[in-house]
Amino acid sequence: MATLPLADGATVDDYAVAERWNPSYVLVSWADDGDQAHWAWIPCRNVRRVTDSEWDIEEYRRCPKNLRGIRWGDRLPGFLPT
After folding, report:
1. To 5 degrees, how large is the angle CA 20–CA 17–CA 78?
2. At 43, is the secondary structure helix, strand, or coil?
3. CA gap 13, 34 in Å, rounded
4. Residuewise pLDDT in 10s, the chain (82 residues)
5. Cα 79 to Cα 11, 20, 53, 66, 74, distances in angstroms
6. Radius of gyration over every alpha carbon of the chain, rounded to an integer in angstroms
7. Considering only CA atoms, which of 3, 47, 4, 56 is closest in space to residue 22?
8. Whole-model pTM?
């Protein structure tokens, strides 16, 4: 999860992929609503690892609706089996 700066000074949290990193910054990539790819170096403090449940929900959201039943069956996303 990356807290990304916006042009107006606000921020937005988005699921991003950590591509590269050093002790101070992380290069993250993400796609906007139009599926346009973006990259930015952001401070490490603005990036956190998501939980398995959070990632399960995001994968469900990204999955085509007609394929969700194959992966998740009757299980709600985010409620992982123990």
Report:
1. 145
2. strand
3. 17
4. 999 999 999 999 999 999 999 999 999 999 888 989 999 999 999 999 999 999 999 999 989 999 999 999 999 999 987 6
5. 29, 30, 7, 20, 11
6. 15
7. 47
8. 0.75
